[in-house]
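**Backbone shape codes:**
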Amino acid sequence: NQREIVENKRLGSVLAHIQQQHEELEQQNKRNRSQKMPSRRAQKTVIKERNLNPVLDLEMSV
């Protein structure tokens, strides 16, 4: 159990360093999200549309 505590302490400092790097990139507007995949918001919109109109699901499966 002591070994896990030591590993977690080391991991905490690494995560803090990564978080600091991300914040710096955000400030410089250099942190880019993936442009290849649609956002999760777009996925929620599609799900709502399919729930409203089940015919859309049938068209996609044909």
Observations:
- Residues 38 and 44 are 11 Å apart (CA to CA).
- Residues 2-61 form one domain.
- Helices lie at 2-27, 40-52, 55-61.
- The mean pLDDT is 74.
